[in-house]
Amino acid sequence: MTKIEIRCPSCDLRGEIEVSEDALKGVTRGLLAVNIPDSTICEHTFIAYIDRNLAVRDYFMADFKIELPDIPIGEDIKQKIISSKDVTNLDLIKLNLSGLLLANITKSIFAKQKILVIYDHEFLYEHIHDFFEYITQDAFEVNIEIMSKETYKNKKKEFKDHMVFEGNNILNNVDKKIDPKKLKVEKQLINTFIAETDLSYSYIILKNEIHKAYKLSKSILDYKKEQDIESLNLKTVVDFITDEYEIKLHKTYLHFIIDIINDYFGVEVTGVADVADFLGFI
Domain-by-domain residue ranges, the chain? Predict the structure, then answer.
């Protein structure tokens, strides 16, 4: 085991963790994502990215944890087993794409935006496509392209309507769809995905949560259509969720679902400013 000094990106407390030599040997490309549970360095949970020279290159953490809703989904989704080849592809995603980049792309998918990722290592292009196709299959549509920095420089004008990402940087934020302060749910989903060491299970967890978000938002719109409701307001949404699923959502997750209804499905939900007035949505 090798000791590595870690700094909490939230409170700046420092401490040491141990990483196995076998794990570090596997980092021929990209970075090793190491989950730091609470009480290891401090009270916070976060991800540390370590290169093969034992240098900490980056950190990623969810802003805070909320209780995600327990919504039934199809058994075909829950029990899907992925091949050993696909598990290897997932490992490449975790090694090469940062948590923040994954959260930004996920948010862009939920907002139904066209996406361009600037990445110079062509070997990963197919894996990136496959990954996002896997986790959104039978749910959200994905429109994502990957190209080198040099190619983007020559074609930049063609991508004015794309969300453009290079590493942790947002080069083009269409209609300011991404507000870094409002990525709480997306960050939590990605944090859980990265922290889970069982690659196959981490994929299933992320895929299930994405399907829950799709099912919940789509069912609200189906209800609107069935009841011939002219427009959606916050009270209608809250009443439907409470009656149909017998759950109460954290206000952050409720805003997350409303954003999907607004941005992905193009249906406005009115009265959102009053969300804090609903008891139970805290």
Answer: 2-60, 75-182
User: What's the CA gap between 149 and 127, in Å, rounded?
Assistant: 18
Give the whole-angstrom CA distance, residue 91 versus residue 127: 10
Question: Which DSSP string corresponds to the chain?
Answer: -EEEEEE-TTT--EEEEEE-HHHHHT-SSS-EEEEE-TTSSSS--EEEEE-TTS-EEEEE--S---PPP-----HHHHT----HHHHHHHHHHHHHS-HHHHHHHHHHHHTT-EEEEE-S-GGGHHHHHHHHHHHHTTSS---EEEE-HHHHHHHGGGGTTEEEEETTEEEE-GGG---GGG-HHHHHHHHHHHH-S-HHHHHHHHHHHHHHHHHHHHHHHHHHHHTT-SSEEHHHHHHHHHHHH-----HHHHHHHHHHHHHTS---EE-GGGGGGSTT--
First and final C-alpha spacing in the chain: 43
Question: How far apart are the C-alpha atoms of 118 and 128, rounded to whole Å?
Answer: 12
Residues paired with 117 in a beta bridge:
146, 165
Q: Give me the sheet containing 162-166, strands edge to edge.
A: 144-147, 114-118, 162-166, 169-172
pLDDT at 62: 73
Residues of the chain with pLDDT under 50: 75-79, 279-282
pTM of the model: 0.83
